[in-house]
Specification:
The complex is a heterotrimer of chains A (about 240), B (about 240) and C (about 220). By secondary structure, chain B is mostly helical. Chain B has 7 helices and no strands. Chain B has helices spanning about 10-35, 45-75, 75-110, 115-140, 140-170, 190-220, 230-235. Classes of the chains: A alpha/beta (about 240), B mainly alpha (about 240), C mainly alpha (about 220).
Chain lengths: ~240, ~240, ~220
Amino acid sequence: MSDVAVEVEQLARRYGRRWALVDVTFRVPTATVMMVTGRNGAGKSTLFRVLATAIRPDRGRATVGGFDVVHEREDVRKQTALLAHQNYLYESLSARENLDVVADHLRIGRDGIAGVLEQVGLAARANDVISTFSAGMRKRLSFARVLLQEPKIVLLDEPYGALDPPGFDLVDEVIRALKARGATILMTTHQIERSAQLADLTLMLEDGRVVGPAAGRPLSGPLDRGRAARETAAEPAAPQESVC
Amino acid sequence: MEMPRVSTSRTPYVLLALGVACLLTGSYFGLFVAPAEEYMGNVQRIMYVHVPTAWNWMLSVLFAFGCAVVFLFKNDMNWDARLEAGLEVGALMAFLLCCQGAIWAKPTWGVWWDWDPRLTSTAVLLFSLLGIVALRHFVDDPVKRAIWSAVATIVASIDLPIVYMSVKWWNSLHQQQSTPQTVSSQFHLPLRVNAFGVLFLMIGFLMLRSRIAAMRLQHELAAPPVLTGEEAGELA
Amino acid sequence: MLTAALRKELLLQWRSRSQMMAVFVFGAAALLLFSFAIGPNTEALRTFSAGFLWLGLLLSSTLTLAESFHAEMENRALEGLLLLPSNPHALYYGKAIANWLQLAVLGVALVPVMVVLYDAGTTQLLNLLLIIVLGTAGLSAPGTLYAAMTAQLKAKQMILPLLLFPLIVPALLASVKATSFAILGDPMGQATSWIVLLLAFDLIYWSLCGVLFRLVVEE
């Protein structure tokens, strides 16, 4: 596999009159963890949806795993998994059944499901219908869904959202495990300090544009983790302000 | 994704004027000069607008279908603007046809509607087109709206011949007499003149309506704000 | 891939089987209302029984078709499947077949109601079954396509019938005519041509809508 997992060039995407992403350019090397920060509405989720090929960009180009997100969507999807805001689950099915559906559509056997449920701590509730699940449990199941896909490139949109402290630890574990397997991970987060421990790179978005030290320069190597943590921690109280 | 362009040519106005002129001429001939038909008398004169409307209506449906197909292949929003025009003009003409059919049927058969296969298919397609126009009103995202109306237009257009055939069979046991079709040569001139009249009017309407649609699309799809060198420097 | 999609659909339908009961009651109530609209004229009721059956089925279909995408849109599950990746054609056909099955079962369930209310008995049960199978297929194919579209809108209840009803006129005509012949007798053997029309309609729309589905669910 080449050494650049994600390459984005002048990406732009609008919703009606509003541009959610403008002139976004960056590069993520393989087997690294990139943390994407920014206030609510900065365009982080939109960026991830474009990279996952859920939506098309209006301008610019992006390649994920070496494949173009517009013209080679199938190939991108085969290697990529997205943990989105919507959990992609069926309310009337149980946790296990939801994963069965995923496994069947991926054409992999159903044997891995028990293990994955164990990993996310839902083994005891495997046969419960998810309409009875709390938000945190649904998040865990969404993680299970991602793990089942065994992706090379993982896009985690607010992985810590709705989870309790043991859940946070689970997320860190999962990220480390994925990284150990050589996966490339992009995550959006407001948990800056926590994520800075895991991240190799950082990217900040504001009003759809890349801002901060990475602006105007494609990232071509690991940043000083300490500096990244200091810089993003020094960002004027953005996470707190963004409570809406 | 091609952005919509708004033209400013005077052509549609010229066409509208021509169309009105032709219609006035043709209708004069049709109403006052041409002889009354043998069996139906003066009522038959409605044919001078009805047949031209029918011909042009079929053209407008073909046009809408064409716009839908081209849009799906080329992803050019200009074709969506034209499709929007085609849908509304098509619906308008279908409505006119149904009215004309009713006006003809009442004095002839004593009923407002005689289930003639062609008119009935027109009525069905009228509802289809109105449905698609309604759909467009409920979708906010312009691109999604364009794709969905193109899909719905293709489905509805392909349905038209099937609807026609099925209504024809359905009505065949009860077929009384259909709306005026056969025309002998005395009646040709007003018919042709009116046909062109309606054609020019229709094209004029299509062009103007496309323009309006394109203007609205331009408003909905803003171009990206350009980053000047200074701004880029500030952010870095 | 199609089996995976179909399995999921059937499981989802099984889970929501209580809704099926409600739709059946709706259909039966519609048939009852039609009879009140006509009056206790047994001859007229029998003559138009086929029409009432299919109208009742059509009205019920707007409920089941709209509902079939509810589960997909709640948590954007359909998008989740597309991103796995899944073949959109398989997803369409899985959904359309499941909807077809549901409508066919409903149709069969409404037949006894029709027989009782309109004195519309028939011995041509196999024939009737064939017509119900083909007719509901004609409703399901475009219905699934349009339900996928309208499920993404706020005014979904209103728009689906508006789009679907004009479209399925040929299928409605053919189904009603063929059913009518099955109930009232077919001295000139015309039912076959209607069944052929129905079959043609089904073939055209099952292929066309399968092709167009991807455009409607991908962004």
